[in-house]
Amino acid sequence: MGKDFTFIRNWISFHFMGNINNFSYCVVNAAGSNLSAYFHNSKNIGFILWANIAFGLVSRLINTFLIENVNPKLKIVVNCLFMIIGLVGVALSVYVNFGFCIAAIAFVGIASSFGESVILSYMKKFPAELVNGWSSGTGIAGVCGSLFYIAMIAAGLSNSTIFYMMLPTVAVYFLLFFFGLKVPNHLDSTNSSSSNNNSSQTEKQSLVKKDQLIEDIDDGGGAELAPPGETKKQRYIRCARLVWYNAVNLALVYFFEYVASVGGGDLAIKKDPNNDDFFIANAFAIFSFCYQLGVLISRSSLQFIKIKHIGVITILQGINMVFWIIQAKYKMVTSVWVLFILMVYCGLLGGASYVNIFYLILHDKKIPNEDRELCINYAALLVTVGITLAACFILLMDHTFLLSEVPSDSSSSS
């Protein structure tokens, strides 16, 4: 049965909002090697990843525990301001210093993390299938962002010009939220009336009619209802218990993949200043593109395949991380094209974990409807924790056992 116009309209809006939400974040990651080299701080590339995510953790915590009931429209307006400050700040940083650049990148990261936390929570008003629109949008953001940066560098544009060029995306993001999204009336009414909870659950089941995964998820019975007189603290603990396995797996996968794609990818190829091969010279940005291509493919795969045993993905990504660390140290694989393919694989694992875990949470009947938003925020929070820890581990690697592999900052790029 075909989707109605409202569903298609919302899917498109969520898709492009997801794209824009993560676009600047992904451009910063693709530009990480060039930015750190420009400021003669190649061994501190981990600070760029850290700034891009660590303060986002704070914004997620604030959204989850302090401003859960604040109007999401106000949150989106504030988030647009964060986007503008971040982009303008990075553009201006080339005239200031590395510290100013890190501060500006922090705003880019806040906007990405806070925006994702707000939108994923807001999605409880919509059919659960729309998470695929958002996740594929965030996936394609990586491809668009890294490809955009590679193209602009190839065209000879400076980092400053590149970040100024991204400002119009903020206006599109704003317009999509306020004029593109339309809350379905039947789901909006169920959110405002507890008497219709059963019909809401029936509706969610109808979205995935023949999906046997739902039966597998719900084999433990119905939702774990809140006990009478439950305090706020007790609710937080109960919800953490409901979602801990999925959330921890997501954190681990993100830790593994960022150590591999940023820490390992930055040092995977021997840099030779006398080699003017475009693919070698811009390997880090191309690695970013390959990684994001894998993420896009797997985040868009939910309509075709759903994975229940997400722990397998975590194990595979952990093995993958070990390979990239060894590659960074010993340069065993000499073909850059083989490494490009292996980085696509890294992205495939990460995207598959992301989309399947959020799908599982949205469909888990053990989670009461009124607690689903908090559980989603827990999982999104653990993503940020995983990447933050990865940034710290990359800094540790680049200052210890991989220090000899970090190139000297004898050249810079604009």
In short:
With 414 residues, the chain is mainly α. Helices cover 75% and strands 0% of the residues.
Largest sheet: none
Work out the strand percent.
under 5%
Alpha carbon gap, first and last residue = 52 Å
Which of globular, elongated, flat, extended, rod-shaped describes the shape? globular
User: What's the number of helices?
Assistant: 16
The portion of residues assigned to helices is over 70%
* Helix/strand structural class: mainly alpha
Our Rg estimate from Cα atoms comes to 21 Å
Average pLDDT confidence is 83
Task: Give the strand tally.
Answer: 0
What's the order of the H and E elements? HHHHHHHHHHHHHHHH
Parts with pLDDT < 50 across at least 5 consecutive residues: 188-220
Task: Give me some keywords for this one.
414 residues, mainly alpha, 16 helices, 75% helix, 0% strand, globular
Describe what this molecule looks like in 3D.
The chain has helices at residues 5-38, 45-66, 72-93, 98-122, 131-154, 159-165, 168-180, 185-192, 197-207, 212-217, 232-267, 278-281, 283-299, 310-330, 336-363, 369-399. With 414 residues, the protein is an all-alpha fold. Helix 1 (5-38) runs antiparallel to helix 13 and helix 11 crosses helix 13 (283-299). The longest helix has 36 residues, at 232-267. The radius of gyration is 21 Å and the shape is globular.
Topology (elements, then pairings):
Blueprint: H1 5-38, H2 45-66, H3 72-93, H4 98-122, H5 131-154, H6 159-165, H7 168-180, H8 185-192, H9 197-207, H10 212-217, H11 232-267, H12 278-281, H13 283-299, H14 310-330, H15 336-363, H16 369-399
Helix pairs in contact: 1-2, 1-4, 1-5, 1-7, 1-13, 2-4, 2-16, 3-4, 3-6, 3-7, 4-16, 5-13, 5-15, 11-13, 11-14, 11-15, 11-16, 13-15, 14-15
